[in-house]
Amino acid sequence: MTFPLSQKRVLVTGSNGFVGRNLVPHLAAVGCELFTPTRKEYDLMDQHQVRAMFRDIQPEVVFHLAAYVGGILANRDFPADFCYRNMILVSHTLHEAWSAGVQKFVGVMGGCSYPATAPSPIREDALWTGYPQPESAPYSLAKAMGHELAKAYRKQHGFNAIVLVPGNVYGPWDNFDLQASHVIPALIRKYVEANETGAAEITAWGTGAPKRDFVYIDDVCRGLVRAAEVYEGADLINISSGARVTIRELVETIADLAGFRGNIRWDSTKPDGQMDKGFDVTRMKELLGFECTTSLRDGVASTMEWFKANRSAALREVA
Fold this sequence. Notes:
Blueprint: E1 9-13, H1 18-29, E2 33-35, H2 47-57, E3 61-64, H3 72-77, H4 79-99, E4 104-108, H5 137-157, E5 161-166, E6 168-170, H6 183-197, E7 201-205, E8 211-216, H7 217-230, E9 237-239, E10 244-246, H8 247-258, E11 263-267, E12 276-277, H9 282-288, H10 296-309, H11 311-317
Parallel strand pairs: 1-2, 1-3, 3-4, 4-5, 5-9, 6-8, 7-11, 8-12
Antiparallel strand pairs: 8-10
């Protein structure tokens, strides 16, 4: 390790979010002195409050996870909010981290920032070769600008800021709202509830042929900690499984784990979407010496058990 986190004063923004809730225990396990302020304590949209946060906490390391997020409908209706707020969040936090003398800044960016036409598996150098999916492009481009900001501060000020790109992440504390969630948490809830109500049939959209690269949140968190401790470069690094599975395989796995024995009817009149989207993990393996090892079945099983045991909290989070 070139930068061990043990005994470091570590600030995590967005610690109440999906990634944050899972990352904090991993950081605690390596012996960090953790600080997880909430929005009520410091509003990151207000630069004066961000400056006060750094003055009060005096962190040595920052994991910047705070973001303004929402589903496709929200992105469609409020594109200016998603673009402006996310650009302000990263601009304030990164600038004040540098100004306060933080030793290392770790940012994250979603795979949605890559061009919609990027060939699969997506390499990190594809970032600015095209336009993201139009439905969420203002959000996606704002997140991508966080990487450009990190590079600019590194070049001008020598600031040690790195940015990682988790793939299609799922796991405990995900969004289980059927209207706004990603595919795995939505399917887990759908099939668990169908099994409980004794539904005879569930309709699945499309043909089931599209392929996706899913990564369990525990692997992502281990990858973020690993990157913070060993990586000092300006280049993006994907954090994902590197293994693509079909949507049909995913649905059948979730149905089996949920105990659903009814019929799954595939409605091929509904769109499949992008047919193949995976992430190249060559840099992750070579630069971090790291691999995401949780199988899809094991990750889904753990997520499903968490959902069953914490249903009221999971659904309250998205109410």
